[in-house]
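Re: Re: token formats

Sure, here are both.
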Amino acid sequence: MDLMISVRPSEEQPTEAGEKRVQVRIGVQFVPKELVVETSQSADEVQQALAEALESERGVFVLKDQRNGRVVIPADRVGYLEITEEEGRTVGFGGTQYT
């Protein structure tokens, strides 16, 4: 099975609670829509979780979302991951920044 993991590095901006937000897009085999999960786990933690799940014969890939929920997928059904660390955005005039 070929598996593609795409990590897009970007500026790391902490959220108001001091956590980084990471968006993970998951392509699941035989499912027409991709899953999109926002998590406070780092890109490296997400990639490591998938690697560990794939090592097991019946491994399960688990991601914790921002609302303390979980997304659980059989690891051998993951077609691809696209991991993006969210950037802070500047809004307003005169250097006023809101993220």
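Second one below.
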Amino acid sequence: MFMHIGHDQVIRSEEIIAMINQQDIETSSINEEMIDFVEHQDDELELDDDVIKTIVITKDNVYYSPLSILTLKKRTSILSVLNQQMDYLEEN
């Protein structure tokens, strides 16, 4: 299934490795290093801390979402329920 994470970005929900609250970045030196590394790798990337609420990490990319982590978690929960229902229907 696909999940909309804001800013016209849609990603495969199966590819999500982690979702990190932007506020947690400031309290973790490891997370802060990772984000600094990604910013230096992509010179065109301009981050506006006022707009970014969640960082979504996949195998191949790091996405910056204006949606809160709670909203994204609700969406992943809904997708999980839908997947379970689809599996159930396919079995019967």
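The chain has one domain: 2-91. The two ends are 21 Å apart (CA to CA).
- S.
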